[in-house]
Amino acid sequence: MIESILDLPVEKQIFYAVLVFSWTVYLWEAYLSYRQRRIYRSTSHVPQELGKIIDSTTFEKSRLYQLDKSNFSFWSGLYSESEGTLILLCGGIPFLWGVAGTVTTRFGFGSDYEITQSLVFLTLATLFSAFTGLPWSLYNTFVIEEKHGFNQQTLGFFLRDAVKKFVVTQCILLPVTSLLLYIIKIGGDYFFIYAWLFTLAVSLILVTIYADYIAPLFDKFTLLPEGELKTDIEAMAQSISFPLTKVYVVEGSKRSSHSNAYFYGFFKNKRIVLFDTLLEDYSPLNKAGEPPAEQPECDETSGEAKAKPKNKKQGCNNPEILAVLGHELGHWKLGHTVKNMIISQMNSFLCFFLFAVLIGRKELFVAFGFNESQPTLIGLMIIFQFIFSPYNELLSFCLTVLSRRFEFQADAFAQRMGKASELYSALIKLNKDNLGFPVADWLFSMWHYSHPPLLERLRALGNVKQD
């Protein structure tokens, strides 16, 4: 069998090696998910060591939620893998490239306008991806998330949001791609250096403008009102020399009841963003005292999110929010953000260098159906997505391990700030609010979890007494 494969032309060997590796990764992921689903099915009662931190009702809700998500992930993953395989086997990539060429020719652009054809190809490919992924996204939002009480969107809001995301993505993706292709074309022998510097500049610009100009297109951002919480946040930031300029609250509750917090910005211009669902005193989901009749109804085509009364208290109190932010600021103080950026850029430079080495290999293009031409965009797709896939899997696992290490260090930083007890209770609350299942298969968590499991984090914080 192996000898017969080795007797094939090199382009066929490349093609089948890509398919085999892709399915190997999928089967490995499916096996890990099966192990975790077995945990979901078999762990129907709260383990003794969790008895004091999670009640049986929440435990059962989280178990069923994660089981539904895991089953959905299996079927959506199988579809995605099958779709990708069929596209490769049926020559979908060269076919779509030909369609893009036909479109550009009709508008008076010949074969010399490769960048124009590349942009049409990219638009068609993202349209195809958006349409094939839409049913899965609808099911996830309006069946799974709805069933378990997280979805806050109407169908009209969801669809308008999806269209807006597509348009904004194209407005960024197409100009950046055209400039990158142009740099590669004119860059000479050292184009990989210029391409890397360009992508570095783009990433820095996007990080800078995202929260100020892009995110507000989708969510409402307001300054945190003056009060005790804002004063305490500013005092904590000052105590560790964090150059905080603004604290925002984002209206995440209009689309989901999941909660989050993050900071962004460069140098002396840092901002903190808190989801309203994280704040016990601000979350609209806690305003359940009003009778349902007093809350306006929205039809499925309206653009407004629908308010859903909750029977439980959502979010964290002020001391717990400060503890969560102490953890997040720990990432900054300990240099985790800078380290991640350095790793990312080193990886980007290495990939562009290897791309420069491989782009001239005609057999790579022939393997995927490009016998006559070697378009630069197709070369980027083949090399970055297919040829680098073993390296990408290894890098992803290493970054997951590093991320868990950083999370423990950030927890320890908050603990040194005297916020161990508050962080302990905040982690428990956030786990309950987001229906995180606190029991994990060791192999599944090792491969997938960028954050340590809840019990491991609580143990690391020490045996803190809770009410």
TrEMBL record:
Residues of the active site: E328, D411 (proton donor)
Main location per the UniProt record: endoplasmic reticulum
Entry-linked InterPro entries: CAXX_Prtase_1, Peptidase_M48, Peptidase_M48_N
Statement: the UniProt record of this protein carries the keyword Nucleus: no
TM region positions: 14-34, 86-107, 119-139, 166-184, 190-211, 349-370, 376-402
Keyword ATP-binding carried by entry: no
Family, per entry: Belongs to the peptidase M48A family.
UniProt name for this protein: CAAX prenyl protease
Organism: Solea senegalensis (Senegalese sole)
